[in-house]
Each structure stands twice: as structure tokens, then as C-alpha cells.
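Problem statement: downstream parser choked on a complex file, so we are re-checking the raw output for the NAP run. The parser issue turned out to be on our end (a line-ending mismatch), but while we're here, posting the original submission so the record is complete.
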Amino acid sequence: MKILITGATGKLGTKVVETLLKSVPASQLAVSVRNPEKAEGLRALGVDVRQGDFDRPETLDTAFAEIDKILIISTDGDNETRIRQHTNAVEAAARAKVGFIAYTSVGNASKNKLFLAPVHRATEEAILKTGIPYSFIRNNWYLENEIAAFQGVLAGAPWVTSAGAGKVGWALRQDYAEAAAAVMTGDGHENTMYELSGKPMTQEELVDILGTVLGKEIPVQQVDDDIYADIMKGVGVPEPIIPILVAIQVSIREGSLEIVSNDFEKLLGRPITPINKALSQIVNEISQL
Ligand SMILES: NC(=O)c1ccc[n+]([C@@H]2O[C@H](COP(=O)([O-])OP(=O)(O)OC[C@H]3O[C@@H](n4cnc5c(N)ncnc54)[C@H](OP(=O)(O)O)[C@@H]3O)[C@@H](O)[C@H]2O)c1
């Protein structure tokens, strides 16, 4: 049995591989990465490091050869790029006749109105088209996505949002990684869909817990999207990123990330890291930067 992880030098992929190495012999693990030099540490541990670029499908035929189970970690970039890259990866996995494809998708991918959702819908559909047994690991929202806002709060800024009362199922990247690792090593995950979501909470609820962790009152400023964009510009967010941040606020406000599910606990075999503990961990990490 050989398991391959793509994006293994990315933030989530690194944690997935670290988790797998605790229960799977390195000889049964392979990674497909754009830059093998970044995976020298894994090679030294006995992991089979392969070069694979989703933009160069010919590299994927070698990278995905003789693999039983593959985890395709979604790439970054604009929607069009990612749909092309993911389709290349799925088609290469089918050519290589892998026996199982897991994919890190987005919450409620088939219906989600989030601007990123078309990527995940298209990829899930491409996987279904192959007829290969699959698992869609639908990740809600990394708590780490909010690190810039946490840094702002630590520097004395208020919490600024235009997300209104929209709720988000935040959880630590580590928990998402461990759940993905469980799908790759466990039995009975063929043709499954997991909605991985922390308990949905509003911005105020999150900030309230952050305030308790930091021992201070954090003002929450609910503004409209235009003011949110102006404030982001004012704190130095690069111009091209601003529409993305606004779109995320809109999607949250419209409920795109308000998903209730206990799939996370089921996969982990434990509750996810409590939000106060998760926040305190991130705050400690930020303080050490
Ligand atoms: N649910 C959420 O809150 C959330 C938040 C952010 C992102 N995401 C999604 O989850 C994915 C993983 O998150 P992350 O934090 O680990 O992001 P990340 O560190 O940016 O990881 C992206 C991975 O995609 C790889 N990649 C990019 N272009 C590629 C290509 N042409 N061929 C092969 N691999 C390519 C990157 O390779 P290198 O290592 O060579 O750079 C990297 O390993 C993201 O890419 C995104 O789709 C979800």
C-alpha cells in the first residue's frame, strides 16, 4: 500500500505528512511536490519524494505512478488556474490508475456561494467523472486565516469586519490535517464526503474568546463592505488582495461557512481543539515571531 500526498511542502500538506509519519512507515509514503529540494527532510526520513507540477501534466504521470491512494491538496491562485491544475491532477491520477482519490474541498462545495467554491465543485465533479473511489474532505475555515487580524488586535487595533452575524466553522489547520490523515489511513472512506467544521460562531463570539485569552476587552467594529475595504487599504493590505478579503466577508455574512456537522470528531476520534486553546496556541506562536 502506497499513499501519496500532493502539496506536501505547503502548510497543510506538511502537517498531513507529519501526522502520517506517526502511524505509517516512511517507505509507504510518497509526496508529489513542485520543488523536491523543499522536501529533502522528508527524503532523509525515507519518504519517496517525487517531482510533480499540476501545470505540467507530463510530470504527474511519473509522480503518481504505482500509488494506491492519493490526497490531492488544493493549490493556491485564481479560480481558473486552480480548476485547470486540479483537473490535470485528477486526470493524471486516473491515468495512473490510483485506487482512491481524496481531495481537500470546501464546506458544502456543491451549493456553496463562496467565490472560491466553483474550484472545488469543478474538482469534485472531475473526480466523480473518473469513477475512482473518492473522499471529499470539505474543510470549512482555518483559524490561522485570521492571524493578521490577531496581530492587529495585539497591536491595539479593534476587530474590523463587515461579516455581520454570519458564522464561521473555524478550526486549527492541525485538526484539518489530522482528519485528512485519518481518511488516508482508515478503512471505509470510499465514496464519502466529510464536512469538517468547528462549531459555527460569529465574529463577536470569536473575539470574545480571544479577549478572554488575552485578558483584555477587544472592540468589534461592524462596518459595511466599502468601509471595510478602505480600512484594509489603510492598514497596508495590497490592492489586489482587498476584493478577495471583501468577498470573504460577504460570503460569511451570507452564511456560506455556517455549517453544522460532527464529521470532524468522527474522523479524529476526539473533539477538535477547543477554540480557546487553539487561539492561545496561535497567540503564543505570533508572540514568538
Ligand atoms: N479552508 C481554508 O480556510 C483555506 C484557507 C487557505 C487555503 N485553503 C486551501 O487549502 C490549500 C492548502 O492550504 P495551505 O494553507 O497548505 O496552503 P499553501 O501552503 O499555500 O499550500 C498550497 C500548496 O499547493 C501547492 N501548489 C501550488 N501550485 C502547484 C502546482 N502548480 N502544482 C503542484 N502543487 C502546487 C504548493 O506547492 P509549494 O509547496 O511548492 O508552494 C503548496 O504546497 C490551499 O492551497 C487552498 O486551496 C483553504
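For whoever reads this later: Residues 6-7, 9-13, 33-35, 53-55, 73-76, 85, 104, 139, 141-142, 145 surround NAP (CB under 6 Å).
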